[in-house]
Amino acid sequence: MPTHILGARLIDPANGRDEITDIYCQDGKIIALGQAPSGFSAAKTIDARGLVAAPGLVDLSVALREPGYSRKGNIASETLAATAGGITSLCCPPQTKPVLDTAAVAELILDRARESGHAKVFPIGALTRNLAGEQLSELVALRDAGCVAFGNGLANFTSNRNLGRALEYAATFDLTVVIHSQDSDLSEGGLAHEGPAAAFLGLAGIPETAETIALARNLLLVEQAGVRAHFSQLTTARGAQMIADAQARGLPVTADVAMYQLILTDEALHGFSSLYHVQPPLRSVADRDGLRQAVKSGVISVISSHHQPHEADAKQAPFGETEAGISSAEILLPLALTLVEDGLLDLPTLLARLSSGPAAALQLPAGQLSIGGAADLVLFDPSSSTVAGERWHSKGRNCPFIGHCLPGAVRYTLVDGRVAFVG
After folding, report:
1. How far is CA 222 from CA 168, 225, 280, in A?
2. Name one GO biological process term (predicted).
């Protein structure tokens, strides 16, 4: 329906806009900013005075758990949770059951996402069949079915030769690869960052070199193949510096960090709470600070939730026997606003890392508020607050931030001009 958004502070980093204005939406598009177009008659008016209007957040890693893991979540529940966090577009990783390595699985996910009618879903296909690191998936067929990029998650390739050939094949068809850098030999059996906290707690450690050695190899292979690559889930300050060096050499690489890695460190493990069990692990204070500076400088241009919902039983065993992951998509914006509260980023820069940055990294049609473009936006109150967990839509409550009072509150999330969430 024709919608008039009245008096919002519009912040659109992609177009360099920061102004108080009215927004006019019709037929799923933004048709005007400022003055109403001739003949426009609003069927719905949203009083957004005092609110910020920003491009809907673009999250490059939200595990939807469907097909195959419905006890943890499903497409309907997790896309609704995403809209509660201000997310209008999201990428789902290929770790489904069956693995997202065929067009049929991609089409199933997209069909169910359309039926649910919440956030827009962009699947990331499996780079290799069954994520086994051996035989390539049918990448072109997956692209044609709607996959926007291809990755193997934390599953390593069986050989560097296989990985190199996969990257060369992707480059031939101008496909984007999403790379997680963690050496399986160095990380095997590890539960926490190798450092004083792990030693004190008696937890097997994962050294910084598990990331940096794999990252060095991957960057060299990316350079050799000439492929467009996005490095996901960086956890170390040294890794961020390696990305900066690669970008300075002109490599077409981007990187993201999990929002929780910008807040938490391995010191959180002292209570042995399984809510802090993640892979790759929470790192040191120095690593967190290095990641924060890389986000500030733009070396890391993307902040993602890396949302991984679990059923309650998955987190109730002793720490080392629990499943890794945090459910946090629906508080992505309030969590991110802590970086503004801490003085690390100004609001337009933060919103760039949450919208235009991720959209550019995977070349998605999202992340900006342009006339004629999709009316995907979030309206939030920066002066209010959110108590995490008061309203919870994800099937996974495995979130260490539940009960915390976070800055800002999402009031409306619009997808194609339709109100998908009201806070």
Report:
1. 8, 5, 21
2. pyrimidine nucleotide biosynthetic process
Confirm if 92 and 119 have CB atoms less than 8 A apart.
no
**Domain ranges, residue 315:** 53-373
Could you tell me the CA-to-CA distances from 34 to 4, 5, 37, 43, 241 in Å, in that order?
Answer: 10, 10, 9, 18, 42
- Closest CA relative to residue 369, chosen from 78, 71, 145, 34: 34
Look at residue 315 and give its three-state secondary structure. Answer: helix
Specify whether the CB–CB gap between 377 and 88 falls below 8 A: yes
Q: Which helix (H) or strand (E) holds 5?
A: strand 3-12
273, part of any domain: yes
- Tokens standing for 21? 């204005």
The dihedrals phi and psi of 127, each to the nearest 5 degrees, come to -70, -35
| Pairing verdict, β 3-12 and 17-26 | antiparallel
DSSP-assigned states of every residue in 134-193: SSBP-HHHHHHHT--EEE-TTPPPS-HHHHHHHHHHHHHTT-EEEEE---HHHHTT--EE
**Residue 331 maps to which CATH number?**
3.20.20.140
First to last CA, the chain: 20
pLDDT digits (tens, 9 = 90+) for 82-107: 999 999 999 999 999 999 999 999 99
**Which residue is listed with tokens 């009245």?**
6
Domain count for the chain, please give it. Answer: 1
Task: Please tell me the predicted confidence (pLDDT) of residue 1.
Answer: 87
Low-confidence ranges of the chain (pLDDT < 70): none
In a domain, 36, yes or no: no
